[in-house]
Amino acid sequence: MINAGIVGGTGYTGVELIRILAHHPKVRITAVTSRSDKGVAVSELYPNLRGAVDCVFCEPDVKFLMESACDVVFFATPNGTAMGMAPILLDAGIRVVDLSADFRLKDPEVWEKWYGEPHRCPELLEQAVYGLPETSRDQIAEGQLIACPGCYPTAVQLGFMPIIEADLVDSEHLIADVKSGLSGAGRKAQVTALMSEVGESFKAYSASGHRHLPEICQELDRFSRHSVSLTFVPHLVPMIRGIHATLYATLRDKDVDIQAIFEKRYATEIFVDVLPKGAHPRTGDVKGSNRCQIALHRPQNDQVIVVLSVIDNLVKGAAGQAVQCMNLSFGFDESLGLNAFGIYP
Amino acid sequence: MINAGIVGGTGYTGVELIRILAHHPKVRITAVTSRSDKGVAVSELYPNLRGAVDCVFCEPDVKFLMESACDVVFFATPNGTAMGMAPILLDAGIRVVDLSADFRLKDPEVWEKWYGEPHRCPELLEQAVYGLPETSRDQIAEGQLIACPGCYPTAVQLGFMPIIEADLVDSEHLIADVKSGLSGAGRKAQVTALMSEVGESFKAYSASGHRHLPEICQELDRFSRHSVSLTFVPHLVPMIRGIHATLYATLRDKDVDIQAIFEKRYATEIFVDVLPKGAHPRTGDVKGSNRCQIALHRPQNDQVIVVLSVIDNLVKGAAGQAVQCMNLSFGFDESLGLNAFGIYP
Amino acid sequence: MINAGIVGGTGYTGVELIRILAHHPKVRITAVTSRSDKGVAVSELYPNLRGAVDCVFCEPDVKFLMESACDVVFFATPNGTAMGMAPILLDAGIRVVDLSADFRLKDPEVWEKWYGEPHRCPELLEQAVYGLPETSRDQIAEGQLIACPGCYPTAVQLGFMPIIEADLVDSEHLIADVKSGLSGAGRKAQVTALMSEVGESFKAYSASGHRHLPEICQELDRFSRHSVSLTFVPHLVPMIRGIHATLYATLRDKDVDIQAIFEKRYATEIFVDVLPKGAHPRTGDVKGSNRCQIALHRPQNDQVIVVLSVIDNLVKGAAGQAVQCMNLSFGFDESLGLNAFGIYP
Amino acid sequence: MINAGIVGGTGYTGVELIRILAHHPKVRITAVTSRSDKGVAVSELYPNLRGAVDCVFCEPDVKFLMESACDVVFFATPNGTAMGMAPILLDAGIRVVDLSADFRLKDPEVWEKWYGEPHRCPELLEQAVYGLPETSRDQIAEGQLIACPGCYPTAVQLGFMPIIEADLVDSEHLIADVKSGLSGAGRKAQVTALMSEVGESFKAYSASGHRHLPEICQELDRFSRHSVSLTFVPHLVPMIRGIHATLYATLRDKDVDIQAIFEKRYATEIFVDVLPKGAHPRTGDVKGSNRCQIALHRPQNDQVIVVLSVIDNLVKGAAGQAVQCMNLSFGFDESLGLNAFGIYP
Question: C204 lies in which domain range?
């Protein structure tokens, strides 16, 4: 049994972490912080969690987290918070699983370019482990500071990785047309995420450049023999949960059996499920589960391969993946607490 | 460990049963039937269940269910099916949990009036136990044939029961204005449930009389000292899961502490959660959970009491309640397999 | 041709006014104000209106409105704004159509009780005309200051009025269970109206007392021979536009032909459409139109009458009704600019 | 004033035609056919149209259409119907505007390949005019048989056309990732379009090949100097109306001013609206309008151009475009009856 703290417990990612950990047989939640809702019971703010935890939101204070005897601290915070608190926690021997973007990029200059401010602890970037178990399982198991991928990068990397690793496509002309539900925009008061604005409508956003692009490229690059160039366009879908990535790449060799390559690559992965030929994954089928479902298409049997990849952005794209990383880090069964099936319909 | 069969595994109620039972530590699913999809793997039709069950849909045949060594058979079928197969199963000592309307009404003439055909085994009606644990726990524990309530009746009864039992309101002028998501309409091809028809729109239906009315009245009557008369108007909400009942009754005595009465009545009920004063339950907070959340209001502190009651129609309103009844019937812990919290957001 | 000014052009009601007036053959929009978006072109903020108007949002300033030679000024503002500017405009002979709550209540003490601050020009309350053409057509035609009803009051009054006027029901036990889309919550940044909060969920709110209650009672009282007492519970539907009122009342005499009474009452009303017996109106059928559709039910042919009444909250519940009032006030054909049919699907 | 007949008046395209034509100052609807709803009043089936038309659905019979003195007949029918009736109507001098796929493809063999049956009047294919006014205005004005484009082809062609005509991109590697609301699936009873199936979920479909592909290629080819090869993947969005095309192409020359090229190309087009730099069109902004809104992006200022193009699939993608073609064909003002602005929110 380990003790876990959650910094930033009032966002959607934080609530989802609590929901998942409430059923985890090896974890006790000992602290949940929230600056804005300090003193309020978690279950008062989130009636779905009544009976799940008896925590009261507390000040996001490093000292308090250490007094709570945390073995691990999750950061479900806006970018910039984890980098302020992580060094002290790490020094105290506490493991850190960061769901924000603070430690995902290796190059502090790239970070500064995309996040608009200098990185405040670049010295930790090298030590940080990228928390995508399907590509970095061993490092995660050894790591003390785990930087969980963003939701878009998870869906896109799991879809592209097998063909990039095997050097089967022209990696300089990749296209990722990705669609996300609204929970990805977080739980903050903003006109652009009102139901009246986004319901019954569909749009792209940040088409000229989105912060998740450098992260995806950095990781694909690690596994690619050639340089990687990606066009990445995110879109907003009038639904709450779910990401659907439609990925386009040009095969070097038309005769390769792509279906077999994906099935082999993910044969032992519990949370990546390659669907049979001809399938079209639905985000609805992975809602509430930690699963990525993938299907492959070759329109007109031509040179272009289309990869369809779906996840629940709050689970495999955030809280579930963080728990998966924690499981690896503490030597637990990788799927502990994560065996829920998708809620359909 | 017991063996369970599911007749009618391709409707939403059937799929939800499989999803819940897949995690139940004491149940093995040994047969899932579907006339229309015979021979197809369950997980082919329902990719959310890939890995959950390795069943293939089989013919809905009594003999086959008996050969599958079922200890219990669930009917998640259209009305009229269970009454044809239940007698043989019961004779063979198999317990039957019926999620359809076949055994809910005690009076075969009332059944015939509302369902438009004669009841085909009226002799079983007396023996059938009404499967609402919060009012009929002991009978369910003893019963061999359990008639699970409809989704509307569950939400309405749990909301009205404390004040009816305690004789606090004028039971001859009850109003239930109830709203349901679309999954209540089932998984059959029909224009009236198309997204284009029901999305972004709201409507009442069957306002002049709905089949769930006699069932609600029958049960409220059992617990009322006075005769019960109810106006019941169902509505369709553009969402998938959830029922919200808004119940109106006139208090005999304005000075009674309704909040205290509800809290006391449901103090030991695991799946009925009375919210604090001033709350307004959201169907979204019970999505995927077996919980009923209830809140109470007294507009202008006047004589009218408003009870707000929400459930997930597929869980507490169908599959979850059926599993709860099965747990009681087999002497398992009542909440086994049913401890999921609501999925929010 | 008259000149119109719109104060508060950036809320949903304001945008809808512009959309409707853009096609009005007798109206030229000469000023649209917005404090927050001053200097921005209307069509930049609202791309659906590109080509409809070439206005730039200006400061909400009385002097500017008078310089714009406005014949009429619409207030599509939060409560409290119109009462500050209306006196000067009225003095200058400009007609005022107020879509906010400032002039709806006759009693300044009731206003203060529900709106939490003293009314700042109670001397205008008597002069203000309630802008529901179906009950107050003649006064509107004569009025200089028109107080348009709220969205809930419009749907509820049109549904109750025929039976209240004709004294057919027990007016002391009325129930209005009303459901609204999210656009009623306005276009302001707030967590409670985010898609992730309200999508796929249903809830009541303000069940213990909502500001539209005194307005409804005041107006029903005007037309009732007996005192009126109403229980009014509003709900949020996961959709954008539309209000559905489900109204319950007890008939004094069971033998009255309610259908005939409604048909007669609204025979000459262009914007109230009584549906045939057995119908259930859909909010979707009046989306974008100025129409109220009504249907009547008598469950089990009993003493309770159920009235179903639907409107588009932004049209007949706000901007459309305001234009209808303006038409009456200036002697135009009442339906000018308002003949759009509902957008289905 | 001309007389119009509508064959197939009960589908979404048919209803939308009636709604648009009801306000058209030069058109009288004299016949609306429907095999399934023969004898029913149009406004009984579609309460949004009460008062719009007093037609009763009649048998889809050529003789009846001719007796109704139709000057033009619209086919809003499933594929295969128009080709059976058009020859007789054309012989009688009646103009035909076909909204189905029957006359869109020039090559009967391609038709047979994609639609699974031989074309029944290939002799008309040459004479048929492709009904996209922005590329074929003059032919439409002269044509007697107009084949209106599909909804996907409209959004995709308007987005690609300027750069294809000007030969600015590599036309052999085009990608169209397109998203559609559910009304595109039509108003027929089918499980796959139920709210419970498609709500709160997102998926691709027909990723390996969709019938609209050959039509798009045929038309782009007409205007391209090089051969055209397109990967086209359609997706289902949980909303009712709207198509969003995200188009990817590689520029031959990075220094070209794409924004200027689009603005110039569409400068005189009333229904194509090129948004300012940096914009992201929303399908919601064109809902109910005949407009196509387009925006252009150059991610990382690189060689890939991203075109975002939105339409309302039932208006500019079907009924509105058909009326636009009819206007051209009869020499009316092209925008007659089509000046509605998008309904927002």
Answer: 152-313
Nearest to C341 among D22, D187, D240 (CB): D22
Residue B330 lies in a domain: no
Backbone φ and ψ for B2, nearest 5 degrees, come out as -120, 160
Burial class of residue C39 in the structure, from the number of CB atoms within 10 Å of its CB (0-12 exposed, 13-18 middle, 19+ buried)? exposed
| Complex confidence, ipTM | 0.97
Q: Compute the distance between CA of residue D73 and CA of residue D88 in angstroms, rounded to an integer.
A: 12
* Cβ separation C239–A191 shorter than 8 A: no
Please tell me whether residues A176 and A67 are part of one structural domain.
no
Q: Are residues C170 and C216 in the same domain?
A: yes
Do D104 and D164 have their domain in common? no
Please name the residue of chain A whose CA is at the shortest distance from the CA of residue B13.
A345
On chain A, the residues whose CB falls within 8 A of the CB of C202 are none
Quote the CA–CA distance of C226 and C279 in Å, as a whole number. Answer: 30
**Cα→Cα distances C332→B37, C325, C329, D185, Å:** 63, 10, 8, 42
Show residues of chain B in contact with C202, CB under 8 Å: 179, 181, 237, 239, 242, 244, 282-284, 310
In a domain, A134, yes or no: no
Catalytic residue check, B151: yes
Which of D163, D146, D125, D136 is closest to D304 using CA atoms?
D163
Q: Which of the 8 DSSP states describes residue C283?
A: G
CATH of the domain at B188: 3.30.360.10
- Same domain assignment for residues D119 and D157: no
Kindly list the residues from chain B whose CB atom is less than 8 angstroms away from the CB atom of residue D197: 187
Q: Which two tokens stand for residue A126?
A: 């090298």
Query: Which of residues B127, B161, B188 is at a domain's end?
Result: B127
3-state secondary structure (DSSP) of residue D103: coil
- Is residue C147 classed exposed, middle or buried when 0-12, 13-18 and 19+ CB atoms within 10 A define those classes? buried
Nearest to D195 by CA among B205, A138, A149, B185: B185
Q: Would you write out chain C's pLDDT as a tens digit for each of its 345 residues?
A: 999 999 998 999 999 999 999 999 999 999 999 998 999 999 999 999 999 888 999 999 999 999 999 999 999 999 999 999 999 999 999 999 999 999 999 999 999 999 999 999 999 999 999 999 999 999 999 999 999 999 999 999 999 999 999 999 999 999 999 999 999 999 999 999 999 999 999 999 999 999 999 999 999 999 999 999 999 999 999 999 999 999 999 999 989 999 999 999 999 999 999 999 999 999 999 999 999 999 999 998 899 999 999 999 999 999 999 999 999 999 999 999 999 999 999
Concatenated DSSP letters of A241-292: S-EEEEEEEEBS-TT--HHHHHHHHTTT-TTEEEPPTT---BGGGGTTS--E
My answer on whether omega of the bond before A60 falls inside 30° of 0, hence cis, is no
Name chain D contacts of A287, Cβ cutoff 8 Å. Answer: 200-201
Of B48, B344, B345, the CB nearest to A344: B48
B110, B127, B144 - which closes a domain: B127
Of A195, A200, A239, the CB nearest to C194: A195
Asked if D235's CB is within 8 angstroms of A246's CB, the reply is yes
Distance CA D245, CA D253 (A): 23
Q: How many domains does chain C have?
A: 2
Question: Nearest CA to D233 among D211, D209, D250, D216?
Answer: D209
Check A49 against B341: CB less than 8 A apart: yes
CB contact under 8 A, A204 and D173: no
State pTM to two decimals: 0.98
Q: Are B239 and D196 inside 8 Å of each other by CB?
A: no
Cα(C17)–Cα(C46) distance, integer angstroms: 13
Token pair 């009429």: residue: C72
Answer yes or no: do D83 and D222 share one domain: no
Reading the block at residue C38, the tokens are 């001053």
Between D19, D275, D344, which is nearest C341 by CB?
D19
